[in-house]
Design brief:
Layout: E1 16-18, E2 23-26, E3 31-35, E4 39-40, E5 49-54, E6 59-65, E7 81-85, E8 90-94, E9 104-108, E10 113-117, E11 130-133, E12 138-143, E13 149-154, E14 161-165, H1 170-176
Antiparallel strand pairs: 1-4, 2-3, 3-5, 5-6, 7-8, 8-9, 9-10, 11-12, 12-13, 13-14
Length: 179
């Protein structure tokens, strides 16, 4: 059903040919999550619906929509990044330049609730991996496709704040090693 989910197989599983960095496992619910539009069934169409695979039941379910994103089939959320927040038991999603407003979203797998934070998170490149550091309670995003920038998003206070991290760049590192 293209209007409520991504393209699905008969088992209600998403048919994604590209998942980018949009997959996370939530230990709290024992589910594997696909958040956002991936290149479903060989196209860039998909919706903002969360899809979850329950490992114990061996079944897929369709979750909530990501706030502020297009719920019709398109490429609005393609190429974002996700990270598991082990401190808060949340999945964070950051939209790349393809996503409306380049949003940062927290998703609670236990309650199926998504919260969008729209200010100050735009301008990051496609294919930028993201990870969560429990030591500093921050998301770290590395841009490398057309920009060579590292960003940290402090999520410790409940109001995420983005910082650029000083970084010499991949080009300098490659040059130093003779590439």
């Amino acid at each position: 059903d293209l209007l409520t989910s991504t393209m699905n197989s008969p088992a209600n599983a998403p048919c994604a040919s590209h998942t980018y960095d949009l997959l996370e496992f939530a230990q709290t619910t024992n589910e594997f999550f696909k958040i956002g539009a991936t290149s479903d069934a060989g196209t860039t169409l998909g919706t903002s619906r969360v899809k979850a695979y329950n490992v114990l039941r061996g079944a897929w379910r369709t979750g909530t929509s990501i706030p502020g994103q297009n719920t019709l089939p398109d490429d609005d959320m393609e190429s974002g990044s996700t990270a598991w927040d082990s401190t808060r038991s949340l999945i964070w999603w950051h939209g790349s330049w393809r996503a409306s407003g380049n949003r940062l979203v927290s998703y609670n797998p236990a309650t199926d609730v998504a919260t969008a934070y729209s200010a100050g998170f735009g301008g990051m490149d496609i294919d930028s991996p993201m990870a969560y550091s429990p030591d500093i309670q921050a998301l770290v995003i590395v841009e490398g496709r057309s920009n060579e920038t590292v960003h940290a998003i402090d999520v410790s206070t409940g109001v995420p704040v983005r910082y650029e991290v000083p970084y010499s760049g991949m080009s300098d590192l490659l040059t130093q090693h003779g590439f």
